[in-house]
Amino acid sequence: xxxxxxxxxxxxxxxxxxxxxxxxxxxxxxxxxxxxxxxxxxxxxxxxxxxxxxxxxxxxxxxxxxxxxxxxxxxxxxxxxxxxxxxxxxxxxxxxxxxxxxxxxxxxxxxxxxxxxxxxxxxxxxxxxxxxxxxxxxxxxxxxxxxxxxxxxxxxxxxxxxxxxxxxxxxxxxxxxxxxxxxxxxxxxxxxxxxxxxxxxxxxxxxxxxxxxxxxxxxxxxxxxxxxxxxxxxxxxxxxxxxxxxxxxxxxxxxxxxxxxxxxxxxxxxxxxxxxxxxxxxxxxxxxxxxxxxxxxxxxxxxxxxxxxxxxxxxxxxxxxxxxxxxxxxxxxxxxxxxxxxxxxxxxxxxxxxxxxxxxxxxxxxxxxxxxxxxxxxxxxxxxxxxxxxxxxxxxxxxxxxxxxxxxxxxxxx
Length: 414
Ligand SMILES: Nc1nc2c(ncn2[C@@H]2O[C@H](COP(=O)(O)OP(=O)(O)OP(=O)(O)O)[C@@H](O)[C@H]2O)c(=O)[nH]1
Ligand SMILES: [Mg+2]
Fold this sequence. Notes:
single chain; alpha/beta; eight-stranded mixed β-sheet; 17 helices; globular; binds guanosine-5'-triphosphate; binds magnesium ion
């Protein structure tokens, strides 16, 4: 009997051993170095995502690797060493992209850049309605004044307000919301004349940047080259500003950051010759985009305007149909002067669009309306800061939404 009990006991123990204990190792987590890191990965990614939310809110292109760091890029200094420049290149955040419908994140990022204009021009417009129950012609009169003093431009402001007055007479503008919606529609219609980024239609696509002194031509080239590189497009830079040695050095800093070659001539060399050589070099190397920097020139100086015409012609000699893009860079803080510059540059050379820089530094961002309306030139990019990622492809819907829409704090207060 005892033997039977011992046999039953052994059988139970064997069952427990094979059925439970032997299975356990498979159920245990893998050893460190095996699955453990994989399990940690989502947490790391989550941390990265959290960092992205706090960082300048720009959407990375779909195919881009995530930025190595969200550290902002300081403004390029020609004196910086190569190692510093390389370090900056490594920390460049991915460039923004405005492809597809504008997301809330993109609008928030734009609102940050347009904070001065929202707090200035837009806040002044909004203030006109405070305590007013009905819309009367006097309010429209005041709106016109605010627009003109915010650099929208006299013609544009008058045209917009003329249409609003007609609608008021037809009793279509009964309250503040109706006026606001009408204004939003006016802005969308004016700004929607085109836009979007550079079209890389040829190899190389030659992009010439022109404008008066200090508007941000070289910085914009650096920003555009950063975007192109992040989009895996090969880039060559041409130092067409042969006027100052520092200008070449400034472009070279960007060249190092984005790992792009810079074609340069001697100080005082003919800028047309540099652009010609660079176009041939771009063809020879098979690069996708050649950015040609030029010296700042006063739109009122005929010899300087003749020089830029010549630069264009020499580029065309090296490659038929080039330059494919001629972008006029305008400093938004110069207000009405920007409009005059645009009109004169447009008359001298064919422009394919505008890059409106320093919108972050003005409370009168309404100037963008005047430029599009009066000159019928599409704004292609806007500059909202000095860092490489502070350049946004212009999208009228997104821009109007960012300008007129509530920001997070306003929405919370409402
Ligand atoms: N805040 C702000 N500063 C900008 C922007 N774009 C350029 N800048 C600054 O404007 C200054 C002039 O920029 P540059 O790129 O040297 O201008 P440029 O047109 O090449 O100047 P020249 O070659 O002298 O004619 C620099 O300090 C830039 O950092 C922008 O969008 N916002
Ligand atoms: Mg320059």
